[in-house]
Amino acid sequence: MTQKTLALKIGAAALLASALALTTSAQAANNNIGGPLILKDQGSFFVGGDTEFSDAISGQTSGPGGFGYSNSDYIKVNQMYVQFQVPMKSARNIPIVLLHGCCLTAKTWEDTPDGRMGWAEYFLRNNHAVYLPDQSSRARSGFDATTINEVKLGQKPATALPNVFLFGRVSAWDLFRFGPAYPTPFADEQFPVESLSDFGNQVIPDLNATLPTPNPTYQNMANLAILAGGAVLVGHSESGFFPEQAALVNSSAVKGVISIEGVCSPLNGAQIKTLAKIPTLIMFGDHLTGSPISASLWSSALQGCQTFVQQLKAAGGKATLVQLPQIGLHGNSHMLMQDRNNLEIADYVLDWIDKNVKQNHGRALVGKNRNASDN
Amino acid sequence: MTQKTLALKIGAAALLASALALTTSAQAANNNIGGPLILKDQGSFFVGGDTEFSDAISGQTSGPGGFGYSNSDYIKVNQMYVQFQVPMKSARNIPIVLLHGCCLTAKTWEDTPDGRMGWAEYFLRNNHAVYLPDQSSRARSGFDATTINEVKLGQKPATALPNVFLFGRVSAWDLFRFGPAYPTPFADEQFPVESLSDFGNQVIPDLNATLPTPNPTYQNMANLAILAGGAVLVGHSESGFFPEQAALVNSSAVKGVISIEGVCSPLNGAQIKTLAKIPTLIMFGDHLTGSPISASLWSSALQGCQTFVQQLKAAGGKATLVQLPQIGLHGNSHMLMQDRNNLEIADYVLDWIDKNVKQNHGRALVGKNRNASDN
Fold first, then answer.
1. Cβ-defined contact of A166 to B222 (cutoff 8 Å)
2. CB B142 to CB A201 under 8 A?
3. A251, A288, B237, B336: which sits with the fewest CB atoms below 10 Å from its CB?
4. How far is A314 from chain B (nearest CA, A)?
């Protein structure tokens, strides 16, 4: 348990002492990757966003805030919030876009639930610019609440409400393969299950059911790759196949796709031909059939992705499907970017990018400190 | 208009050329504050979070994802997500916590809608550690969707739905004092109104109506101040008085409070006595009565805060209320941290902190790179 997780479980009086006592172990664990971080640039911006005229921007007829405003107004929807950081020595390395999965946010890629370094900072420290979006309709990207308000106002039936959902502690234990049944972990489980409560803080309602079809995140990811001057797109779980979907919208700046623990949708010949031009890495963890309820889901996901990789190869593509046990990494969960060996897996990803993706990318178009010296 | 705002309004073909053409002006504007940023530490974590047993974690009886899970499970609610950055030379300076207002997120304090530097990075570059929370129930902090799902499932009436709301383009123009009436700006308006569409992307639904009373963000902010080793708490608009509310929960680590464009609630004598021990800055912009619908709201907010400051002073407190025109800054909107002269206002804030807040604070308890050298 880390100082972060523990500290707020206890009262304010005990807080100082306990947190101080726990500082040492966190230090020791990160000595090899700590130290100053030198950034050439950082910031945040939005990609996309459509103007919509909503007739229910609040759930009360007196309008938002009750301040006497009309309850009809123009709002923005479908936008995608992105944070980015550019390390000093990144000029030769391709930017990496890290997109989170269901019921999660960009937090997925930041510090782990037990306070270790996540992939975002690790890729930065390995000299890649990193872009961290929240999916359209999630977290800082906002969502369209019009239907919820229309139902509250009696303009639509309750059945019109979007299906808002997340995974609770017990269902996540199964689906994310922390163990065979809550609260028992697998003997070799790599997820820091002692920090399950802190992980629960990351799990927030999924509002993708409020989005139009196709999901605007596809287009937004394709445009983000252009703004980054070319990028490797990484998706996870719900968004595992979003990099491929983005490339099918516009592949011009998608220099590599990495699909982690996702579902590879069936595609037609023309789509396979387009994607075969982009180096592709598909990754799964361990224990795919070890959790009773999700066993068939994960088997089927693996099979679908095996078929996809075969199709890409038949079309002349560079495609790899790796199950981590095949490369000697055992016990990895669905949240492998937060597992205890998360940086070993990150090393595999970095090595795959080095060997498969053209590195001297274009010039990023977003950012404000372009005058900083380029290394 | 910046490359960020403009770039995604146009098609992919025109995107490269336009964005490149616009890079120059953004560079020029930031020459004085650009250059490498050296961090001792950065990361993200959660403060608080309660475990709740929800009987409707999705809006379908087949449970979340339709994967065969129970629709009842343990979820986390009331947690507060926080990002932080610690610059190398911060040891002598008090950390600053920046909390956003209604329908907004921590994005408030990052790059402005027209792509200039926000207060978060500016305070960092002035050697203060900066903590950026999303309010509990907003953005990456998640929210409790149980009631929405119960209504969808027919277990509760539509009237039980929370009042979810935001401010649209026309109402924001009035409330945020961009001008006397949409789309006309004040002659001396400082908000970058040409970037209104990009600002609209920041405005997301407010779900505070889903929270228990008292708002858990108060306790979370007080605990965050402890974890930061003492901090100045800054609130804005809806959260303008949250720093004071946090100090009333636990003032032990609240070393200064700054309330920007908020409503100062009436307090009793004991509460005033507690807050009088903490240096307090209240700030308002310009044109408080210039927008017809919000004129009475802002007059009343100003009056309430004038009373509050008088009460603090009568109790021996160090308290200042500043209307920006009084110090020669004119045309500032409700979103003054994003206005064209936002860094001039930031300088005033930094100067106020220097002169009023004890600077040699305690040692922060969160963060992972504590072994980095301390300057």
1. no
2. yes
3. A251
4. 30
Q: Which of helix, strand or coil describes residue A254? A: strand
Q: Are B226 and A19 in contact (CB under 8 A)?
A: no
Test A81 with B107 for CB contact under 8 angstroms.
Answer: yes
Least confident of B20-24, B165-169, B252-256, B361-365: B20-24
The pLDDT-based confidence of A11 (bands split at 50, 70, 90) is very low
Q: Under the phi-then-psi rule, with left for phi > 0, alpha for psi from -120 to 50, and beta for the rest, what region is B142?
A: left
Query: Which of B143, B368, B371 best probes binding to A when mutated, by most A CB atoms within 10 angstroms?
Result: B368
| Contact criterion met (CB below 8 Å) for B294 and A67 | yes
| Within-domain flag for A65 | no
- Residue A3 scores a pLDDT above 70: no
Contact between B235 and B259 (Cβ < 8 Å): yes
d(CA A114, CA A98): 20
Number of structural domains (chain A) is 1
* CB contacts < 8 A (A, B): 367
Whole-angstrom Cα distance, residue B332 to residue A170?
A: 50
The verdict on a CB contact (< 8 Å) between A64 and B171 is yes
pTM: 0.91
Q: Return the residue of A nearest to B18 by Cα.
A: A365
Q: What are the angstrom distances between the C-alpha of A190 and each of A283, A343, A346, B17, B42?
A: 16, 12, 14, 47, 24
Identify the burial level of A260 via C-beta atoms within 10 angstroms of its C-beta, where 0-12 means exposed, 13-18 middle and 19 or more buried: buried
* CATH number of the domain enclosing A134: 3.40.50.1820
In the chain, the amino acid numbered A300 is: S
To the nearest whole angstrom, how far is the Cα of B272 from the nearest Cα of chain A? 22
| Phi, then psi, of A352 in degrees rounded to 5 | -60, -45
Contacts of A174 in chain B (CB under 8 A): 69
Is residue B223 helix, strand or coil? helix
User: Looking at the domain assignment, is residue B372 inside a domain?
Assistant: no
- Interchain proximity B163–A152, CB inside 8 Å: yes
**CA A105 to CA B291: how far, in whole Å?**
37
Give the burial class of A3: count Cβ atoms within 10 A of its Cβ; 0-12 exposed, 13-18 middle, 19 or more buried: buried
Amino acid making up residue B217: T
**Is residue B34 situated within a structural domain?**
no
Specify if B27 maps to a domain: no
In this complex, do B140 and A250 lie within 8 Å of one another by their Cβ atoms?
Answer: no
Quote the radius of gyration of chain A (alpha carbons, Å). 22
pLDDT tens for residues B201-228? 999 999 999 999 999 999 999 999 999 9
Range of the domain at B196: 39-49+79-140+162-356
Is there a contact between B19 and A365 if contact means CB atoms under 8 Å apart? yes
**Integer Cα distance of B345 and B118 in angstroms:** 11
Q: Are strands A73-77 and A50-54 parallel, antiparallel or unpaired?
A: antiparallel
Q: Looking at CA atoms only, how far is residue B359 from chain A in angstroms?
A: 19
| Ramachandran class of A159: left when φ > 0, alpha when ψ lies in -120 to 50, beta otherwise | alpha
Both tokens assigned to B168: 């649209």
Nearest CA in chain B to A51: B197
Q: Give the DSSP H or E segment for A19.
A: helix A12-30
Can you state the angle between helices B12-30 and A216-227, rounded to 10 degrees?
50
**Type of residue numbered B192:** P
